[in-house]
Amino acid sequence: MSPTLVRHQLPDSGSTDRPDPVATAPDGLCAPAGPRARARDWAEIQERMLVPLYEAAYTRLGVGPGTRLLGLGCGSGLALLLAAGRGARVGGVDTDEYRLELARERLVPDGRTGAARPVGGRLDEVAGGGPFTVVTAFPPVGGAGFTEGPVAALTAAAGLAERGSAVVLGGWGPVERCATAGVLRVAQRLADPLRTAGGWWPGGRDDLEELAETAGLRPDGSGRVACPFGYADAASAVRGLLSTGAFDAALEAAGQPQVEKELREALHPYLRADGTVWMPNVFRYLIARTR
Question: What's the whole-model pTM score?
Answer without folding.
Answer: 0.84
